[in-house]
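It would be a great kindness if you could assist me with a short task in structural biology. I am sending you one protein, given as its amino acid sequence and as whole-number tokens for its backbone shapes. I would ask you to consider whether the tokens describe a fold that such a sequence might reasonably adopt. The full record is reproduced below for your convenience.
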Amino acid sequence: MVEITNNLTEIRIKIDEIDTKIINLIDERAKLVHRVGEIKCNTSEQIYIPKRENEIFERLSKESDIPYSVVKSIFTEIISGCRRLERLLNVGILNDKNSLLALKKILGEWVNFVEFNSLDNLFTETQNFDYLLLKDSVKLQNYLKNSDSNIVNRTEIQGELFYLIGKGVAHDKKNIKD
């Protein structure tokens, strides 16, 4: 436990020491993630596994006084940066603000995305992406019925549902929290 004083300089020194420990632990985590990536590459396992990430968020939020939503936000970015060391995911999205916000909420900052102006254009390019991020719509439902793609994750932004679509295992809705 860190002793809290009223001396601003001492507090900042302690924060700097903690930040150094955090970055060293993230570096250690990144090296382990890199090894996981090598193993996944040899076994053709999916890089992005939402269930595993949700387990991490749940466990960490139970082990701290930090609310789940804050833990998820912080660790989404840590995981995103570490995942980037495995491979940058390619995602097709529609060209609108909420789609980009939903993408970042699900996968974090480290993702390669291509924006499309229409669903029809996006659907013709699906083979070029690991995932598609789409709003709930009749066209989406028809696409899912006629393809071998599944919903692998979901989120809500300003009342709109967004689905991450891919070839991976379909998500279990009870294991996904926004």
Observations:
- The longest helix spans residues 8-43.
- The first strand starts at residue 90 and ends at 94.
- Strands lie at 90-94, 112-116, 131-135, 150-157, 160-166.
